[in-house]
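How a chain folds remains the central question behind the approach discussed here. In the encoding step, the backbone of a single protein was reduced to a row of integers, each denoting a local shape. We regard such an encoding as a compact summary of how the chain folds. The sequence in question and its structure tokens are set out directly beneath this paragraph:

___
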Amino acid sequence: MFRMFLMLAAVFGFTGVGLGAFAAHGLRNRLSPEHLAVFQTGVQYQLVHALALLGVAVLATHFQGRLVGLAGLFFTLGIVLFSGSLYVLTLSGFNKLGIITPFGGLAFLAGWFCLGLVAWRLA
């Protein structure tokens, strides 16, 4: 589990930085300010949750159990659904993808909830 979540953290961190640079330099003149802000929101959430995946990888070395793995799974799903839908929505203009974004947000919340349960059980 450690290796998988560490690899996911690296991939999402790397692509998040790349997408952020792409937005700042390549999309500034192509997207409206509103769409650029939406794209940057996707980047921000991707980078924050790449760090969360890094934390999950570290926790996986210390704690056995399903909750740590579920947290990582939910964070990964959240990045794909939340950030991914925002990227596709802004680049393609296909607004119907906006229906997927809240499911990514729920996945993020579920991941943080799982981490909270891990902390609760430590007491």
